[in-house]
Amino acid sequence: DAKTTQPTSMDCAEGRAANLPCNHSTISGNEYVYWYRQIHSQGPQYIIHGLKNNETNEMASLIITEDRKSSTLILPHATLRDTAVYYCIVRVRTGNQFYFGTGTSLTVIP
Amino acid sequence: DAGVIQSPRHEVTEMGQEVTLRCKPISGHDYLFWYRQTMMRGLELLIYFNNNVPIDDSGMPEDRFSAKMPNASFSTLKIQPSEPRDSAVYFCASSPPGQLETQYFGPGTRLLVL
């Protein structure tokens, strides 16, 4: 699985959009981009995933660059409950292993 | 649905003792994963099962660790003998058939070995 690079930490004002970047310059053609988050003292939670098209669900949007070497997770209206560590993972869809890395610690500020 | 259930939620034991962690996956899920999380190493995959059969145990740190899945609704992770460096949060996760991209995690077991 390709390695990802994320900023260690970010702050975001409550109600504003949170944009979390991820670099995955060595991603292979058959590898997907997945995002999970982990709220303090809880297990990780699936957010969204995509291959090359932008994706949106009830939680977030995922923007993948045309060359697929980077992506951005967007939380459109961040709330205090979105404070968590966000993990960007790339893997083949049929792969079973998730390499979570260190993620980005997002703090939503009132 | 109750989600993935893990027990105990907290465990404190002394070095050398046997520790058994338990997991009940979501009904109907056919993949089960055991992870360990520490500040130093982050979240590590230890082992995973498919239809109760261990598929990859390459993440198991050493022979002191063993995992079983006797049926579709129960799995155990055992550490014998336990050591202080085993102190961590242990997570169990499961995935439904054909949806490997979505792993549902349990609340974790916080283990402290003194």
Which helices and strands occur, and which strands form pairs?
The complex is a heterodimer of chains A (110) and B (114).
Chain A: E1 9-13, E2 18-23, E3 31-38, E4 45-50, E5 55-56, E6 61-64, E7 70-75, E8 84-92, E9 104-109
Parallel strand pairs in A: 1-9
Antiparallel strand pairs in A: 2-7, 3-4, 3-8, 5-6, 6-7, 8-9
Chain B: E1 5-7, E2 10-13, E3 19-24, E4 31-38, E5 42-50, E6 53-56, E7 65-71, E8 74-79, E9 88-95, E10 104-105, E11 109-113
Parallel strand pairs in B: 2-11
Antiparallel strand pairs in B: 1-3, 3-8, 4-5, 4-9, 5-6, 7-8, 9-10, 9-11
Q: Considering DSSP H and I runs of 4 or more, what fraction of the residues of chain A is helical?
A: under 10%
Question: What's the rounded overall pLDDT mean of chain B?
Answer: 93
Strand composition percent of chain A: over 45%
User: So what's the overall shape of chain A?
Assistant: globular
Total of DSSP H or I helical runs spanning 4+ residues of chain B: 0
Low-confidence stretches of chain B: none
Q: Give the strand tally of chain A.
A: 9
Overall body shape of chain B: globular
C-alpha-based Rg of chain A, rounded = 13 Å
Structural account:
Chain A is an all-beta fold and 110 residues long. Chain A is 0% helix and 47% strand. The N and C termini of chain A lie far apart (37 Å). The relative contact order of chain A is 0.35. The mean pLDDT of chain A is 91. Chain B is mostly beta strands and 114 residues long. Chain B is built from no helices and eleven strands. In chain B, strands 2, 4, 5, 6, 9, 10 and 11 form a seven-stranded mixed sheet that branches. In chain B, strand 4 and strand 5 form a beta hairpin. Chain B is globular. The model of chain B has no long low-confidence stretch (mean pLDDT 93). The chains are: A mainly beta (110), B mainly beta (114). The interface between A and B is medium-sized, with 22 and 21 residues.
